[in-house]
Write a structure and sequence with these properties.
The complex is a heterodimer of chains A (540) and B (195). Chain A is an alpha/beta fold. Helices cover 40% and strands 16% of the residues of chain A. Chain A has 20 helices and 18 strands. Chain A has a six-stranded mixed beta sheet with strand order 2-3-4-6-5-11, with helices on both faces. The longest helix of chain A is centred in the middle third of the chain and has 23 residues. With 195 residues, chain B is α/β, with parallel strands linked by helices. Chain B has a six-stranded mixed beta sheet with strand order 2-3-1-4-5-6, sandwiched between helices. The longest helix of chain B has 21 residues. Chain B is globular, with a radius of gyration of 15 Å. Classes of the chains: A alpha/beta (540), B alpha/beta (195). The interface between A and B is large, with 50 and 53 residues. β7 of chain A pairs antiparallel with β2 of chain B.
């Protein structure tokens, strides 16, 4: 590898690509598998020297809106999130398709098929199609880097946000990436049309027509994109469409002999009809291989599925309908003989993730179980998304829900409205400032009978210990939202404060109204890291 | 050449430090590399794996196909068995024998080691014990790297360079200690391989 080649995770390749393509600001909330993009930027001297914006946002919605504000000024910007984060940011995302862009704006979304660290495996391409926004989907780390340049150009040329779609295996896989010549940042330049971003109905109707009118040009771009390629094949009984990383799994299986079938490598959308038509005309069957949901397959087949060409893929059982792809699954779909392989011995026990030894959540769950589960039975505790979700598993089995960021407080409120007593919520400090505060306000307005535990470990722990917006502000925020200060209780969760903790919970259960209990003790992982840094002279 | 390695262990055991050393050696040898890692929830004490693929021609898949791994390098005995479907019939299973017990139903260690014995090409090594004997209490990973190096078509000197690269900022003593640990692991494998 030469000096210009770096060994980068897919996530890091995106970060470096955007930096080299003249980005002025990154906006994100941590979420696996997208977190390492911002982390790379935060450690980059290039970003520091140019003072590129790289502070975490409160959530994905605030991140994307801030990015849109930067695009408004003519500068290039990127918002990054995991797939479910795009749901949180769906409002600005969909409407940014209508406002369009000024400076280039890339929305990088990392999907997590097989739900390695997620609540669902939704495919972000569906939302991009919904917003009528073009998508770039890299098949390798080099493309992930290069596509940042392409996406900014595309965004500025057509005044549209561009989605850069990653999936877990490319986001978290490392490979050599050759850098290009870095570009300068854009200068401040306001939009030519000062009402471009004013989506008043009368203006929005016009902007929406513009969005519709852009679509054929965006498809032309995909038809002529260097990232889409039609490889000829002599055996036309079958054609293969492989999108993003699925292309690699196809090629992995044709190492020893060239692929005999026509093969469309698909990495830029809208779906390039030129190639699809050619394949359908040439081949008896088309096998669609995509990482995620059958997005292309479903479009190709159509509702009635009466085309002369047989379309196969995830919807016909050639590939599983759910879960991520791998070389074995693709090999089977291609009709090739399986590699010889032995099954794993039966003696192996599953090893699920668990709370770290010494974690403050352990003490919190012991107290919550004693005060609530032991007294009133199971079924009273609504929880949220973070390390503490592991409280659903043995030995705690302390929580009864985990749905989306912030849903603990609002679900507990709904249950209390229905007459459930006690009704409690468990939410982490970072999740609280992400999406819990507005729910707490709802509860305050109605004086709902709730006990809300904000487990404050002073970091965004699950994703690796990023700074939490809640740090040192929780009591102030709760007071500001209108919680009675007498019913905002703090406790240091430790083995020797257990009885006191249980007593506090009991007192607040007897109060008819909104109580907030804040067990505060730093995450053992970030504490360890800080101690190490101190040892090494205070530098990260 | 082509070298597919599955690195296995438990979140927190630091298998990525092994990947860094081998990866550096591969890159310095002018080879291509892809390395898929486990991030996120499993890092909290769950089972973790990393797929390390090294080749002198284009590597497509980020994941090692089942039945294709040349080496399973596991820092924990039960975890070594989890990935047996990936091992090629000619592949080597190189595992630490010190269990990491963070689950209540951890199986009987003898049963696990018996399964390891059934794999035709294997090396089982008490890497924690050896690291301790070498006064390198955190050197288990380098014992394992040294043991597995015997089955890698990579210049051993390049692996030492990988250690210099990885541990350089901790000082020459730490570098020397880890190189000695690496050599001890390799020597053990030379003397105790199953075939």
């Amino acid at each position: 590898m030469d000096n210009n080649t770096l060994l980068l995770l897919g996530d890091e390749a995106v970060a470096q690509g955007a930096l080299d393509a003249g980005v002025s600001g990154f906006y994100a909330y941590p979420g696996t598998p997208s977190t390492e993009i911002m982390e790379y930027v935060q450690h980059s001297t290039q970003a520091a020297e140019k003072n590129i914006h790289r502070t975490w946002s409160a959530n994905e919605k605030t991140a994307l809106e801030a990015a849109l504000g930067m695009s408004y000024t003519g500068k290039r910007t990127m918002a990054m999130m995991k797939h479910v984060g795009l749901n949180v940011a769906a409002d600005p995302f969909i409407n940014s398709g209508i406002t369009g862009a000024n400076g280039g704006i890339i929305v990088t979304v990392a999907d997590d098929p097989s739900m390695h660290s997620s609540q669902d495996e939704q495919d972000s391409r569906v939302l991009a199609n919904f917003a009528m926004v073009p998508i770039l989907e890299p098949s390798n780390q080099q493309e992930a880097y290069q596509m940042c340049f392409t996406a900014f150009e595309l965004s500025e040329k057509f005044q549209t946000p561009v989605m850069l779609r990653l999936t877990t295996r490319i986001a978290h896989s490392r490979s050599g990436v050759k850098r290009g010549a870095p570009l300068d940042e854009n200068q401040l330049a306001m939009p030519a049309d000062k009402r471009q971003f004013v989506l008043l109905p009368a203006i929005a109707r016009g902007r929406y027509k513009l969005l519709l009118e852009k679509q054929p040009s965006l498809e032309d771009e995909a038809n002529n994109s260097a990232y889409n390629h039609y490889y000829e094949g002599s055996d036309t009984r079958m054609g293969i469409i492989a999108s993003g990383i699925a292309y690699n799994y196809v090629m992995e299986n044709f190492q020893d002999q060239p692929c005999p079938y026509p093969l469309l490598k698909l990495s830029q959308y809208p779906i390039p009809r030129k190639y699809i038509e050619r394949m359908v005309n040439e081949c008896d069957e088309v096998l669609v291989i995509e990482e995620g949901m059958p997005v292309v397959e479903e479009k190709l087949r159509g509702l009635l599925d009466r085309g002369p060409t047989v379309v196969k893929g995830r919807m016909t059982g050639e590939l599983p309908r759910d879960g991520e792809l791998n070389p074995r699954l693709v090999r089977k779909a291609l009709g090739l003989e399986a590699n010889p392989s032995t099954g794993a011995p039966e003696v192996i026990a599953p090893r699920p993730p668990a709370l770290c030894p010494g974690c403050s959540h352990i003490d919190a769950y012991h107290a919550i179980n004693e005060a609530i589960k032991a007294e009133y039975g199971d079924g009273h505790v609504f929880a949220d998304i973070g390390c503490y979700t592991l409280g659903a598993l043995p030995p705690f089995e302390a929580i009864n829900s985990c749905v989306d960021m912030g849903a603990s407080i609002t679900m507990a409120k709904g249950a209390a409205d229905a007459g459930l007593y006690p009704s409690a919520a468990v939410i982490g400090d970072s999740t609280f400032t992400h999406s819990g505060m507005t729910g707490l306000l709802d509860a305050v307005i109605e004086n709902s009978n709730l006990v809300v535990f904000i487990l404050d470990n002073s970091t965004t722990a699950m994703t690796g210990g990023q700074n939490s917006h809640a740090n040192g502000r929780l009591r102030q925020i709760c007071t500001g939202l209108g919680v009675d200060p007498e019913h905002i209780r703090s406790i240091m969760p430790k083995r020797n404060t257990h009885d006191q903790f249980v007593q506090i919970i009991k007192e607040e259960l007897s109060y008819e109204g909104v109580s907030v209990i804040i067990p505060q003790r730093e995450c053992v992982q970030t504490q360890l890291r800080r101690a190490k840094q101190k040892q090494q002279g205070g530098k990260q | 050449m082509k070298l597919d390695i599955i690195l296995a262990g438990v979140g927190g055991q630091g298998i990525l430090s092994i990947a860094t050393v081998i990866g550096y050696a591969a890159v310095q040898s002018g080879l291509d590399l892809k390395q898929a890692e486990t991030h996120g929830m499993s890092q909290r004490g769950g089972d973790v794996q990393s797929h390390l693929r090294i080749s002198d021609h284009t590597i497509y898949s980020d994941l090692v196909p089942e039945g294709a791994a040349d080496i399973i390098l596991s820092v924990e005995p039960m975890e070594s068995l989890r990935y047996i479907p990936y091992l090629s019939p000619q592949g080597w299973l190189v595992t630490n024998t010190t269990p990491f017990k963070n689950i209540p139903n951890y199986p009987d260690l003898d049963k696990i080691l018996k399964e390891v014995d059934k794999v035709p090409h294997h090396v089982a090594i008490d890497a924690d014990g050896m690291a301790k004997d070498l006064k390198n209490s955190r050197g288990m990973n380098m014992v394992m790297t040294g043991a597995a190096s015997l089955f890698m078509d990579i210049d051993f000197e390049k692996l030492k360079e990988g250690i210099r690269y990885s541990f350089g900022r901790k000082g020459q003593d730490i570098v020397d200690l880890n190189i000695a640990t690496l050599e001890a692991g390799r020597k053990f494998a030379e003397e105790n391989r199953s075939l």
